[in-house]
Amino acid sequence: MPPFLHDNPTACERIKRYCTEHLDGLTVELVHEYIHDVLLPSMLIDESDDEYDEGGEVADEVAGEDVEEEAEASTAPPGTNANARYISKEDMLRYYCLQTLCTGTVYKWMITLGMKYDVRKKNYYVDTHERDVATIFVDVYTIKLKRQVLRTNY
Length: 154
Fold this sequence. Notes:
- The structure is a single chain.
- With 154 residues, the protein is mostly helical.
- It has one domain.
- It has seven helices and no strands.
């Protein structure tokens, strides 16, 4: 399993949920857009948190020890610290040794998550062999077939 998916099980679940909700027009490009525009930004540090003021600076009320803990949390692997977040997408991708997140990578991730590329088939089955018209036809056909078998054998 790719390190990003291994370290972020909630991201895996969100990707799976998105794919199952959009099965009608699901493409790799659509999932790629979702990951870039929705999933990755939600994993980044939100600068509007309480510990940041309007200028993006750390607020005065945060103690020095808390700032050190925040710094340790941001460099720890996400699997070891559930609150670990990144400053930018580039930092996150760099952590997982990815230069960019291309559609090929997203396709491999989808395969890993259990999706498969297949032609969409409409499966609609109607059990009509028990209708009245069908049973009458089978009875008539069976009688004709028996007569023909009797003629060919004798």
